[in-house]
């Protein structure tokens, strides 16, 4: 009777692998807060103190990667009227945007592939991007790329921002633009989720740069090239490039970066960026900016702590520091003139006492910005005073919701790491009446008298939750009774009051869902005809503890702009210096550190189909097998579908199929939309932590997935885009 449990335990590898990547815990013979006392108030640094270096210091060499001149401003009335873009009404056979269409639905109307014939799917070709770690380079690679397809070509980016056009039928490279991003500019992850296809409203059809490919880079540039030739669009910015470090103040390479395709809304290209977590309270700004998609000139900024100033900072000044950043893909809305921005925390994720009221009002939220002015039209917050790293990592999805009386509301689907999915009216940001949001009591004020928690938190009470119930000591689990006992002891040593257990110095707290729980960068897929949402999600608790500044120093936790910074000592995930605050942070998975097994029982990853109209789960099942996973990070080869951690999303088709990779078993699979059962799978050469896509050329349907792997998930890293199709005789 023990064998099934033991086999189930071996999932573990994916989970383990993730755990190892998450932990980054320097060895210590004592618990994080042991023998330390909280610092006095005198050690706390307020907004008037930056610590070091000064925010007015010149930017370090390499921050303005191409040594580009400053960009000028342009008035909104000078922006030419935009022509309709490809993603507004995609050709049936195309995939012209990151989520296929301007709704970011990840739905394709193609139906050549069905549950009946998908089992005959074979590899059509493999394309190599050429981007992977070189000799002596730390593995930070995680491509996360979804190609776009227009006409007979695929357009994509490598993990290090080279842009490519390839033949969609055979993978032959037509052109490549070398972006020249340097290794030292890689932040936590070398990733490029995709590029933007843009049609000019000023350059005539048939002329160079009428059709353009645009990307935002790891070293903070906005680049446009001609879609036909790959040559820089000289009329955009300075020779085809814009320096997005302008106005950002002091920084170093890798502190801020961009990994998502910028949306273009009514002729305005909107850019966001990630700021490396855990470094310092006065990190570079999380400002959101709009640029003229034709000329590259600056139009507006939304700077949280300077809400009335939408201009670029004057020389010697900078955007307000430490404000919530947005690293997830944004969604544009031409009809309403809005861009929906998923935000994260202010800098120093696990300590909120130094945040302004303006920051607290917009963190971990969806903010609808007016694309003409940069002014927020509405804000919907998913977590109040977030100190759990519950930033919004998912791109939101637009859809039209039909009420019982036949009326239609333009709606927004908002996934979260909490597993709560909010359904909003996208004109107002209010929850739809059919999907009410209730404020429920949360553990408060908490043990940190200087940083009390919010008394309530928002819950979407009608939409099925993507999470399991709160943990119990009896849920503790392991490969043997000794392992289970170890986890029970660890559970008892921690503070756990359910969701939103506050972090503290005196003892660890269990965070569940963890910061990689629920939905992350893969987002959701939505079939608008069937009204079905496809969601894959994680169930991986974390073990957190604030530590005094003295302890943080002892552990060698220093911010990235410190000359003695050690990348192995902390980063975007795991331990963080949180400089300029009284406390550092130690974060690890809630696991048995000796076997690398999670302390909560599997599954750790799920996928399910939800009927939006009835609010019912149509099917739900674990996602990911134990074949590439096991204790001590040893693959078992077992095909047991026990549910591994997963990152990356799905695509749903008119043919009745769901394609998804994401899990740490390094497989892509086709799932029957009606039954939830696998009807085809293939082992990839690397991890599939990206969103797949599908397209058609000359009557043949293809499915593509970037098998680039992921250092965070500890799946094999490659430079391979794998593309599938039916053999000619099977069509």
TrEMBL record:
Organism, by scientific name, is: Swaminathania salitolerans
UniProt entry keywords in alphabetical sequence: Oxidoreductase, Signal
**An example Gene Ontology cellular component term from the record?**
membrane
What name goes with this protein?
Glucose dehydrogenase
Supply the InterPro entries for this chain.
PQQ_b-propeller_rpt, PQQ_mDH, PQQ_rpt_dom, Quinoprotein_ADH-like_sf
> Under the GO molecular function aspect, what terms does this record hold?
quinone binding; quinoprotein glucose dehydrogenase activity
Top-level taxon of the source organism: Bacteria
Required cofactor names: pyrroloquinoline quinone
Q: For the Pyrrolo-quinoline quinone repeat domain, which residue ranges apply?
A: 95-703
Keyword Oxidoreductase among UniProt keywords? yes
Q: Where is the composition biased (Polar residues)?
A: 23-32, 101-112
Q: Into which family does the record put it?
A: Belongs to the bacterial PQQ dehydrogenase family.
Q: Which residues form the signal peptide?
A: 1-23
Question: Which stretches does the entry tag as region Disordered?
Answer: 23-64, 78-112, 433-454
- Give a yes or no for keyword Oxidoreductase in this entry: yes
